[in-house]
Amino acid sequence: MTLSLSTPDFLIERNRDRCINCQVCVRQCANEAHIWDEEEQRVKSDDALCVDCQRCVTLCPTHALTIRKYPLEFRENANWSANAIKAIYKQAESGGILLTGMGNDQPYPIFWDHLLLNASQVTNPSIDPLREPMELKTFLGRKPEKLMVQDGKLVEEMPPQLELEVPIMFSAMSYGSISLNAIKSLAAAAEKTGIMYNTGEGGLHKDLYKYGKNTIVQVASGRFGVHPQYLEAGAAIEIKIGQGAKPGIGGHLPGEKVGLEVSQTRMIPEGTDAISPAPHHDIYSIEDLRQLIYSLKEATQYRKPVGVKIAAVHNIAAIASGIARAGADIIAIDGFRGGTGAAPLRTRDNVGLPIELALAAVDSRLREEGIRNQVSLVIGGSIRNSADIVKAIALGADAVYIGTAALISLGCHLCQKCNTGKCNWGIATQNPLLVKRLNPEIGAERAANLISAWEHEIKELLGGMGINAIESLRGNRLMLRGIGLSDRELSILGVMSAGE
Amino acid sequence: MSVLNAKGVYYRELNRQIRAQFASGVEEVRVQNVNGQRYIGDGISGSQRLILEGTPGNDLAAYMDGLELIVEGNAQDAMANTMNKGRIIVHGHAGDTVGYAMRGGEIYIRDSVGYRVGIHMKEYLDRVPAIVIGGTGGEFFGEYMAGGVLMLLGLGLADAAPIVGSYCGTGMHGGVMYIRGEVEEYKLGKEVKSVSLTAEDEEKIQHYVSEYVRYFGGDAAQILARPFNKLIPANKRPYGDLYCAW
Ligand code: SF4
Ligand code: SF4
């Protein structure tokens, strides 16, 4: 075997004064970074195996453990960062494509942090959400051009709508990429809070059919587990074209993660790779997309909204316009910080657009073309808190998808190793010993708490602006000002500069 | 049996009528003057029979779950998209992407098919979908195939005329193709290999050929007289060692 030039990323520090050799860390670390040395009768560690998931740190009863960045410093070089060098060592050793998990972690600008919200002073009273009603209810789906009422009733039938108590949904995460307990947590939290979760492209596990009215079922290029009963099971259908972490790339669930239940849900043999081709091979144009949208509408007799999820890429405004015209009821746009169970590193970190710019561009374009009413816009790709949501709505979103934030609420520590299947938090794994670490009841409680907390915060922020219904904020870019942005960026975002 | 006339009827209305017929308990529906209406039979579950006279449009029998569908004419593109169960018999040609991601049921096509037929077909437990084609197949035949059976008979083909297009079985990682005649090496995707037939294969081939003959006529013995080429994935995990962990 050739010598590996890879060095550890993290340093495990064990405070020997505190360590009682209880071996909790040994049992907790699926990466086997902690080892019980029988001879010496004490716990040891191998730094090279640690991924900094913080599991052992959190569970160590005496707080004996600290994880640090490995203090090995390459000679300072502004061009060749430690990661740039390490990547080459790994590829020189393996000849492989670098694979990683979660979202783009590079220091690109975060436009949310360059947008400031407004508040009322004197000329327009602010509203106290604790005393006054505040409406966050959101309907997703095509809205008619105009409403005609006769005898107190709508003349034309309303196109099908998704009803949300809060403009937040859990984004698509497939069974396979995350554990059944993680999905159960999100499904139950969605039910509790009156929102939706999304199956992702891995089919619908039999235990999850009961959450149907809070479910968006996804149809992706691999069509795993897609059949009439599945299409009927959810409140809406989403065609997945792409995702922010890997625009233009398909999915690939390795055979190791296709155990009995994943196999039953995806309807493929156990242990086989589940490959989702990069494109849907029946969609090479907007016209073809229209055909898939209408095939789904026909199959479900026009009773469910059909959405299309795409990654934010350079020509996003024109693409979104095409999708609206193709008959989608909802367009979901995933920004380049969106998470994933596995993606090639170079794609994750270099392809796509910040969701803020994509959202503003799409909303403006659909308005200019007079078709904004035809489609609802849902955005995702790193919504971190309720302020991001309020800013997104003011930029023109109807609702947001949260994926990474939802997983963090379940205990994810963003170690970015979802692709390895060894998630110590029981989320991105199919190993039954790890999966059972995540109790779906507790998970549901935590995820639901997050939604309720954000709901309160959104109401506070709205009240501060003197707005009592989220509808009045939607696309209301006057409530935003940019700070530290170029004129060009301000014009794409369609907001004035702070101070204006 | 009930008879519907599709002349001048928009697809949405036609499909509504077909569903209504089945919902009312009719076991066999014959639709006359079908002329390009899309999505016929989409997402319908049940074991009834649907007979179409004419040329149905794209996405015929998408997500279909059980029907027996007979086309007395040609079928267009994307027939049997993600089909789950059932049987389709086409007395003519069919277009591109027949049986995309199909996971169950059988399709018999009397004549030829277009590009990308049988892409990402899968199988699961007792569901082994099959597409049997009397004529030739276009390029990307069986691309990404993950399960099931694809069969090309090349009937009436002039000597040395190609039976299938290039990139046959690219990305194939499951299932089997039986092609009656030779496929030039250069046409095969690099994930595919040609192997010799087993007794079990012979049996399967006989079964599908006899079904074909049952629907469209012909001489099974004569068809079987010409050797079949069996194509399977060279590797069940074509992308198994493509990656290294960051
Ligand atoms: S991988 Fe996680 S559990 Fe293992 S040593 Fe590192 S921080 Fe602790
Ligand atoms: S889901 Fe698990 S593996 Fe993925 S980043 Fe979070 S803690 Fe790490």
UniProtKB/TrEMBL annotation, chain A:
Manganese keyword on record: no
Task: Kindly list the biological process annotations in GO that this record carries.
Answer: glutamate biosynthetic process
Q: Which residues form the signal peptide?
A: none
Q: Which GO MF term does the entry hold, naming one? A: metal ion binding
Q: Which residues bind [4Fe-4S] cluster 1?
A: 19, 22, 25, 60
Q: What is its EC number?
A: 1.4.1.13
Q: Which UniProt keywords apply?
A: 4Fe-4S, Amino-acid biosynthesis, Glutamate biosynthesis, Iron, Iron-sulfur, Metal-binding, Oxidoreductase
Name the source's superkingdom: Bacteria
Catalytic reactions on record = 2 L-glutamate + NADP(+) = L-glutamine + 2-oxoglutarate + NADPH + H(+)
Q: Which SUPFAM superfamilies match?
A: 4Fe-4S ferredoxins (SSF54862), FMN-linked oxidoreductases (SSF51395)
Q: Which InterPro entries match?
A: 4Fe4S_Fe-S-bd (IPR017896), 4Fe4S_Fe_S_CS (IPR017900), Aldolase_TIM (IPR013785), GltB (IPR024188), GltB_archl_type (IPR043578), Glu_synthdom (IPR002932)
Q: Boundaries of each 4Fe-4S ferredoxin-type domain copy?
A: 10-39, 41-70
One matching Pfam family, short form?
A: Fer4_7
Which residues are listed for [4Fe-4S] cluster 2 binding in this entry?
A: 29, 50, 53, 56
Query: What family is this protein classified in?
Result: Belongs to the glutamate synthase family.
By what name is this protein known? glutamate synthase (NADPH)
Upper classification of the organism: Bacteria, Bacillati, Bacillota, Clostridia, Eubacteriales
TrEMBL record, chain B:
Keywords per UniProt: Oxidoreductase
- What is the top-level taxon of the source organism? Bacteria
Q: Which residues form the signal peptide?
A: none
Which InterPro entries does this UniProt record tie to the protein?
Answer: Glu_synth_asu_C (IPR002489), Glu_synth_asu_C_sf (IPR036485), Glu_synth_lsu_3 (IPR012061)
**What SUPFAM superfamilies does the entry give?**
Alpha subunit of glutamate synthase, C-terminal domain
Ranges annotated as spanning the membrane = none
Q: Where is the Glutamate synthase alpha subunit C-terminal domain?
A: 11-197
EC number(s) per UniProt?
1.-.-.-
Q: Which PANTHER family does its entry note?
A: TUNGSTEN FORMYLMETHANOFURAN DEHYDROGENASE, SUBUNIT C (FWDC), TUNGSTEN-CONTAINING FORMYLMETHANOFURAN DEHYDROGENASE 2 SUBUNIT C
Record's protein name: Glutamate synthase, alpha subunit, C-terminal
Organism, by scientific name, is Acididesulfobacillus acetoxydans
